């Protein structure tokens, strides 16, 4: 019984038979009901059967006791009505994170029958009149398609979003992805972290979104069709702490990236994905080399200190052994002279010391024959700023 709080911290439901079994268990076991009420923080609904009506109907009993759920996930729904999502979310007062994986979101533009809200006494409230979920601050979409009306309806109910991750999808509805970014800027004014991996998003829409959020953005991950995206970042998103720019079009971005580094003085992490080698500014390579040289020197100094300390300990042990054996003289090999010669040999071990392979692959990993992904840390960005920002 002691393991139940851990097991029911995350409840995942997929088959109606499992839902019925859980419903029966809650009726006959007050301890199970109390455990779910106190410990369940994550609820995942997975579609394993055709139809999605069970989302709003069969799970209703569970929503009455899962009042502490903070994360709600929907997986593998071929057609998931946004109205049903809103009905489930409205029953979770502490909901913070909403995630969709491998789903297809749809909306009833003109519902043929009202979606009843069990939270209200009359039961006649339709989807458009459902309350907004201001407490939900995190939205994730992973390989999830949607119509323009569906994503607009969903975002209209989430005005408190602060972290938004629009992952790539296979959306075949014209302009739906672009409408998602436009609707986000219209209905969600508090966004601070924005990841846009959607295809078919117009650059003018991205630039306008960056302009609207402005200095409230602290983390941004977008594609760059031309230098206009970098110009928008430099002009409006000066408070950025993390920036990922994925090159998606021809053109030279070097000068505009330097302008971004000048304007975003608090930038602590920068990643340039799929950039042509000639587009990466020279100051970036110089900064990487300078930081690498300092790191090697630091490793060398540390190894020398460690080697001297080990020599001292070994020499001390040898002297104790000599004194305990009663011998007054020792040979050259016994008094440590050979170790001193090895210690200061011209073939220092630091010459063979390199950065860890993981760090090296993160810094410059190949993405083809002429494109690179370059990730810069705070130390390297500080080195670049010394060069591109004139001292007062």
TrEMBL record:
Gene3D superfamilies associated with the record: Ribonuclease Inhibitor
Domain of life: Eukaryota
Region (Disordered): 323-345
Polar residues bias locations: 323-334
Record protein name field: Uncharacterized protein
